[in-house]
């Protein structure tokens, strides 16, 4: 960007931060760093200002690499510049900037990568999804270059399998995520006649049910211990407690908690009504007192002032926006469970573990499986069975819920 574009972007960014309720001190810090960078560019006669220019500025003026900032003070210096360039491209910015797992694109594949980048940016994906898809595609192109294959059309299924084999040392969850992104990239290559095979052909979906392991859950006493460990005298505790109650007493998924709006709560009739994010099915649940009063306490005494007047749960730090997905809810819940002192070794400790716990504890109280299915928002009792495999004593009840063959 040139100087005029730089100044316009800087002004727009600072105005957007003010709209998002950032403190005056934070806005002044961003202004100081960006202005300092502006003077650096003028002093060195830099006409075309880029992220590379910012990296040189950080290195020369502060003595560390922009994409490697292990110290908090270093991170606070690079955040304004990373946010600035992100805002210049997308009109938005992320609260945090992790050092990207960057990959150099081989020159022979640069036009292809740029074409894929334009496609991904036009798909409406969230920022994190865009970055993951571009990263795995960049890794694949770099792999092809490393084996001296410079024409994408010459890549074979075996080539793709060889690339997948480079993920063998990754954690299983990471490898699965990479394969999903790689499959999407191969489908795009095939649809645009850059490949003789698609991702669906290389990695077909095989549906199966895994019944070899029991699902993690916590007893009613352990759930009570988790709830009791929260300090509800603080705004942070009020947020944590209200979210935990939605999980412990109603089993609502993390994604639905993040998306919960005031219009979903009927205070007079005492019900919650919303469309489930995962299934798209409507769900109505009773607004139990155990859930109602923590929600009221959070809304009245802990919910930040926010331009978002529709969503119930708002992030505790500026910009005061809603949680975009269940990831933020997962972080809150897992932190609470680990802090509570309950034994987590060998068990999951996220929102779903409390959802599983509710189902199993209800079954132990002789609540019919059909009733549990209604609470969890399942359309089939077979789905509910998954949540009950921890309680072998009551597994026989599943068979009693199946109607006799009337044919």
The oligomerization state is: single chain
Q: Major beta sheet, specifics?
A: 3 strands, antiparallel
Based on DSSP secondary structure assignment, what is the total number of beta strands? 3
SSE-based structural type? mainly alpha
Q: N-to-C SSE series?
A: HHHHHHHHHHHHEEEHHHHHH
Question: What share of the residues lie within helices?
Answer: 40-55%
In order across it, which strands form the biggest sheet?
1-2-3
What would you call the shape?
globular
Overall pLDDT confidence: 84
Query: What is the terminal-to-terminal distance?
Result: 74 Å
Radius of gyration: 26 Å
Indicate the proportion of strand residues.
Answer: under 5%
- The number of distinct helices, counting runs of at least 4 residues, comes to 18
Low-confidence sequence ranges: 209-213, 390-402
């Amino acid at each position: 960007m040139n100087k005029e574009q730089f100044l316009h972007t800087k002004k727009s960014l600072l105005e957007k931060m003010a709209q998002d309720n950032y403190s005056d001190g934070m806005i002044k810090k961003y202004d100081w760093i960006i202005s300092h960078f502006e003077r650096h560019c003028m002093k060195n006669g830099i006409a075309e200002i880029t992220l590379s220019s910012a990296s040189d500025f950080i290195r020369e003026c502060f003595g560390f690499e922009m994409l490697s900032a292990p110290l908090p003070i270093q991170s606070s210096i690079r955040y304004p510049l990373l946010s600035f360039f992100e805002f210049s491209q997308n009109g938005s910015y992320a609260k945090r900037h992790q050092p990207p797992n960057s990959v150099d694109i081989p020159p022979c594949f640069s036009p292809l990568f740029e074409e894929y980048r334009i496609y991904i940016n036009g798909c409406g994906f969230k920022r994190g999804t865009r970055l993951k898809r571009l990263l795995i595609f960049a890794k694949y192109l770099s792999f092809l270059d490393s084996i001296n294959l410079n024409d994408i059309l010459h890549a074979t299924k075996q080539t793709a399998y060889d690339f997948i084999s480079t993920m063998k040392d990754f954690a299983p969850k990471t490898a699965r995520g990479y394969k999903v992104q790689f499959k999407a990239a191969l489908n795009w290559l095939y649809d645009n006649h850059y490949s003789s095979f698609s991702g669906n052909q290389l990695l077909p979906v095989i549906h199966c049910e895994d019944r070899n392991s029991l699902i993690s859950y916590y007893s009613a006493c352990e759930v009570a211990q988790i709830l009791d460990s929260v300090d509800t005298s603080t705004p942070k505790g009020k947020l944590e407690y209200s979210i935990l109650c939605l999980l412990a007493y109603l089993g609502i998924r993390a994604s639905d908690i993040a998306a919960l709006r005031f219009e979903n709560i009927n205070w007079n009739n005492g019900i919650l009504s919303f469309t489930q994010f995962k299934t798209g099915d409507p769900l109505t649940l009773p607004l139990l007192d155990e859930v109602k009063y923590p929600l009221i306490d959070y809304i009245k005494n802990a919910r930040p002032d926010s331009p978002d007047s529709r969503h119930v749960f708002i992030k505790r730090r500026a910009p005061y926006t809603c949680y975009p997905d269940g990831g933020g809810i997962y972080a809150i819940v897992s932190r609470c469970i680990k802090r509570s002192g309950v034994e987590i070794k060998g068990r999951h400790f996220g929102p779903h573990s409390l959802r599983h716990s509710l189902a199993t504890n209800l079954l132990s109280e002789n609540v019919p499986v059909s009733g549990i299915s209604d609470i969890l928002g399942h359309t089939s009792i077979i789905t509910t069975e998954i949540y009950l495999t921890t309680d072998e004593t009551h597994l026989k009840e599943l068979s009693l819920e199946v109607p006799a063959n009337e044919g």
